[in-house]
Amino acid sequence: MFLILLESDGLTIITGCSHRGILNIVKTAIDITGINTIKGLIGGFHLFRNSEDEITEIAEKINSSNVEHIITGHCTGLNGLFLLKNICKSKITPIKAGLTLTLNQP
């Protein structure tokens, strides 16, 4: 299950845990809306059981799609977060208690 925030300049996708795969979720959001600009991905990416090669491939695909903000937590796993951070650099923010997000700023 995921939520699509449709904004004038792209999509923000919010997921609890990406059991069906974060790349599948992104593809479905694009298919539903017809918009391929992803401003943000927020949620757990369910990578804690994936191999380093699988996580690297996912991170490279996310990074090449020009997502502006990637805010990920719990089921992404520490290894997933580390590998995403190495590839996506400053786009990554880990979810933690007290994190406040402001979306759709003018």
Describe, in plain words, how this protein is organized in 3D.
- The chain has 106 residues and is of the alpha/beta class.
- It has a domain at 1-50 and 65-78.
- The protein is built from three helices and five strands.
- The chain has helices at residues 22-33, 52-64, 78-88; strands at residues 2-7, 10-17, 38-44, 69-73, 92-94.
- A five-stranded mixed sheet has the order 1-2-3-4-5, with helices on one face.
- Helix 3 links the parallel strand 4 (69-73) and strand 5 (92-94).
- Helix 2 (52-64) packs parallel to helix 3.
- The radius of gyration is 13 Å and the shape is globular.
- The model has no long low-confidence stretch (mean pLDDT 93).
Number of strands: 5
Main β sheet profile: 5 strands, mixed
Low-confidence stretches: none
The end-to-end span amounts to 28 Å
Blueprint of the fold:
Layout: E1 2-7, E2 10-17, H1 22-33, E3 38-44, H2 52-64, E4 69-73, H3 78-88, E5 92-94
Parallel strand pairs: 2-3, 3-4, 4-5
Antiparallel strand pairs: 1-2
At a glance:
With 106 residues, the protein is an alpha/beta fold. Helices cover 34% and strands 27% of the residues.
Properties at a glance:
alpha/beta; 5-stranded mixed sheet; 106 residues
